Amino acid sequence: MQILTPESSRSMPWANGLGSTLEIATDTHSHHDRSDSWTWRLSVTDVPTRADFSQFPGVDRWIACLHGDGMRINRSNVWTTLLNSGDALSFAGEEIVTGDPIGPNVKDVNWFLRRNRWQGGMRVHRETGSTIAEGEIVVIHTFSASAGPTIRCEGQSVKIAAGHTLITSARVIIESHPESVLVIAWASAR
User: Fold this and answer.
1) From the CB of residue 59, how many other CB atoms can be counted at a distance below 10 Å?
2) According to a count of CB atoms within 10 Å of the terminal CB, is the N or C end of the chain lower?
3) What per-residue confidence (pLDDT) applies to 29?
4) Contact 102, 81 (CB under 8 A)
5) Do both 153 and 127 map to the same domain?
């Protein structure tokens, strides 16, 4: 189990050069590798205006609205509205996708998995009570919380504060509190 602090996040330019993202966690974090050699990655992005997404060939992606009124996503001329809770929208990194924020202060969260290595999913959890996540990789990011959620895994019980991220490779039981906003992402080897 590893807990990352907000200071370990790093700002990274979008691959298409149209903006930047806050990289929360990758499997290269502990190696201080600044390249694209990751096989999984979690990031949070401000979405101030309509913009095209960067393309990531060979990567499966999930996106969810983390803060704000939501976001509209255009894929193959079909618009989908992302609300700010529940399962994330999944799509292939090769797709041509445009995002359009609904109102101000929209933030999205993105989960990237190299397709030849991982399969998984992501959701934004805003409910009080317990939920379970399981995978060879489980990443839990506490976006906001009045009281940090309690995470039970690997025979331990830990609390993670707002802005902190837990990375583990086990079955995880998450006890969240009122007004907690958690990102829960998971992956297993193909």
Assistant:
1) 21
2) C
3) 62
4) yes
5) yes
Which of 116, 144, 171 is the last residue in one of the domains? Answer: 116
pLDDT at position 14 over 80 = no
Cα–Cα distance measured from residue 150 to residue 130, given in angstroms and rounded to the nearest whole number? 9
Which domain covers residue 65, as residue numbers? 10-116
Which residue, 154, 147, 155, 145, is CA-closest to 183? Answer: 145
> What would the pLDDT profile of 64-115 be if each residue is shown by its tens digit?
999 999 999 999 999 999 877 778 999 999 999 999 999 999 999 999 999 9
Residue 1 placed within a domain: no
pLDDT of 33 strictly over 50: no
CATH number, residue 85? 2.60.120.10
Q: Which amino acid is at 66?
A: L
User: Over the stretch 2-12, which tens digit does the pLDDT of each residue have?
Assistant: 999 999 998 88
Q: Is the pTM of this model over 0.85?
A: yes
Q: Which residues lie below 8 Å from residue 48, measured CB to CB, with a gap of 6+?
A: 101, 104, 106
| Longest CA pairwise span in the chain (Å) | 48
Contact present, 49 and 105 (Cβ < 8 Å)? no
Split at pLDDT 50, 70, 90, the class of 35 is low
